[in-house]
Amino acid sequence: MKKEFLKYDTVRNNALKMAHRIYQEGFIPDVIYVSLRGGAYLGNVISEYFKIVHRRARPVYYAAMVARSYTGIRESDEVKVEGWTYSPDALRVGDRVLLVDDIFDSGKTINHLARMILEKGIPRKDLKVAVHDYKYFYNKAEQLPIQPDYFCRKHELSVKDEDVWIHYMSHELVGLTSEELEAHYYSQDPELREVLQVIAKDAKDIQKE
């Protein structure tokens, strides 16, 4: 599988541009929900943007939820939500909600979270989904009903294409090899060699297996 290393400042700059586009199109959220942990960095930037441009009006609530995918019978993924910092039960008809995550891949997590919000009486027009990377498999047999409304990058793929692992350098460390740590971390800050030596050892052990 191919890997792309996406620097944090690239995500930050793209997030600001996307937030500005959302604002210009007239969608001012009352609540921004981020899916932890991937959506946190993107959501932080978007929240800061709206905190400034909307400072003289009602504050935009910023909240998070923890959602995890579990593999069960027949290898199908089941999404379970383990907590909300602002319960969707508190949403009122008329509230505008922005749901933020780093990537739309299978789309199962975002669709699960969106359904939970829609079930509280929020109409689809008042729920928008924003992601940094939108993987769209154009020849997929069936598309999930909730697709991103806003995105920084769209990757149009065939289900037969070789997939790309997008490594967000703002927070991800899992899955790095010793060579990747050397190229993307130690070369910029040699002190990280000691900090991340456990990861480097584990990566080497995995390569031997």
**Proportion of residues in helical segments:** 25-40%
Tally of separate helices: 6
Beta-strand content bin:
25-35%
Distance between the terminal alpha carbons, to the nearest Å?
18 Å
Q: Indicate the CATH topology of the largest domain.
A: Rossmann fold
Please, could you describe this protein's structure?
With 209 residues, the protein is α/β, with parallel strands linked by helices. It folds into two domains: 2-171, Rossmann fold; 173-208, no CATH class. The chain has six helices and eight strands. The strands form two sheets. Strands 4-3-2-5-6-7 form a six-stranded mixed beta sheet, sandwiched between helices. A two-stranded parallel sheet has the order 1-8. The two termini are 18 Å apart.
Keywords:
six-stranded mixed β-sheet; PRTase-like; alpha/beta; transferase; 6 helices; Rossmann fold; single chain; glycosyltransferase activity; 2 domains; Phosphoribosyl transferase domain protein; 8 strands; 209 residues; PRTase_dom
Short structural summary:
By secondary structure, the chain is α/β, with parallel strands linked by helices. The protein has helices at 8-24, 40-53, 108-118, 178-186, 192-195, 197-208, and strands at residues 2-6, 31-36, 61-71, 77-84, 97-104, 127-137, 150-157, 164-168.
Task: Give the topology, please.
Layout (H helix, E strand, L loop, with lengths): L1 E5 L1 H17 L6 E6 L3 H14 L7 E11 L5 E8 L12 E8 L3 H11 L8 E11 L12 E8 L6 E5 L9 H9 L5 H4 L1 H12 L1
Parallel strand pairs: 1-8, 2-3, 2-5, 5-6, 6-7
Antiparallel strand pairs: 3-4
Organism: Leadbettera azotonutricia (strain ATCC BAA-888 / DSM 13862 / ZAS-9)
Keywords: Glycosyltransferase, Transferase
Protein name: Phosphoribosyl transferase domain protein
